[in-house]
Amino acid sequence: SAKKQGLGNWAFFNKKMTEKAIAHLRIEANLYNAIRNDNLSLFFQPKIELATGKMKGAEALIRWHQGDKVISPGEFIPVAEESGLIVTLGKWVINKTCETLRKWCDEFNQVPSIAINIAAKHFIDPKFVEQLKSCVSSFHLDPSLIEIEITESSFIHDIQLAIAVIEQLRKSGFKVSIDDFGTGYSSLSYLKVLPINTLKIDRAFVEGLPENDAIASTIVMLGQQMDLEIVAEGIDEAKQLKWLQAHGCALGQGYLFSRPLPQEEFENQYLEPEQTVLEIE
Ligand code: C2E
Ligand code: MG
Ligand code: MG
Ligand code: MG
Which of 14, 87, 90, 156 has the fewest beta carbons closer than 10 A? Predict the structure, then answer.
């Protein structure tokens, strides 16, 4: 009967919701333990100066180690964002980044800046800037070594708040980038009022180069006119690189240069050890 069918549908819908909720809770609990047990790591992808091929910075990208398996952030960041765990995770990333930069400053020449991804919920947390500053100063680091990547979702709800946070960050010496630029729903007019350093062209607009270049060329021109640094994401073919070089995009990241690397591999490939002074008798 219709009544029975309705009930059945309700039961089915409810079961699916319950399964999803349980799956989320399971990831959440496991992630909580992963943070506590340090089963996380940061991989580093070099940011490359396109004209010279030189490394000019690194982006820290989180990985979750489960035995031999490495889990990508796409599988757990969305769950962490739905719970409060994203803030705990973000704090872990900040601390790990500072620890890494301290090590690099002690052991290597010409230490590159590290870009970290901060979720909207964390970015608008009233304690975010103070905690970041206190972590950086406890490791005796120059804040200009850290670049904060946010997405358009960080300022879509409250532009005044976002401006205030970005101003605080800049005043304290940090750099600020808009990540995945062009994929959100923000208005271009926001760009004028946000005191940012960098726009990162989303991989989706690099993928189609050189044939589909309308959005990439708009962003590159915007950057030139507004005096913003432009970084192209996800460069994985030579023809994309050629287009970006010819159109004056200064920086880029992508598999064509390097995948994100475990810290030790990044150090071996991109950092130059400080000359040790030998004592001669
Ligand atoms: P994102 O910040 O836009 O990072 C770029 C993503 O593109 C990374 O994926 C990187 O591995 C991938 N990628 C780079 N070059 C290429 C390429 O040439 N081809 C292709 N196909 N992909 C490329 P990943 O590491 O899986 O991270 C995915 C997203 O997860 C990141 O996007 C970022 O939004 C988020 N995420 C990563 N780490 C963190 C973190 O520590 N905190 C937060 N809140 N989010 C993070
Ligand atoms: Mg990013
Ligand atoms: Mg991105
Ligand atoms: Mg992205």
Answer: 14
Q: For ligand 1, atom 11, name the residue with the nearest CA.
A: 260
Name the residue at shortest CA distance from atom 13 of ligand 1. 234
> What atom in ligand 1 is closest to the CA of residue 81?
44
Tell me if residue 267 falls in helix, strand or coil: helix
3-state secondary structure of 60: strand
Q: For residue range 152-208, what is the model confidence (pLDDT) as tens digits?
A: 999 888 999 999 999 999 999 999 999 999 888 777 778 889 999 999 999 999 999
42 CA: nearest ligand 1 atom: 41
76: closest CA among 57, 96, 92, 98?
92
What is the Å distance from ligand 4's center to 203 Cα? 7
Task: Output b/e per residue, 65-94; b: 16+ Cβ within 10 A.
Answer: eeeeeebeeeebbebbbebebbbbbbbbbb
Residue 17 CA to ligand 3 center (angstroms) comes to 31
Whole-angstrom distance, CA of residue 195 vs CA of residue 236: 30
ipTM of the predicted structure? 0.98
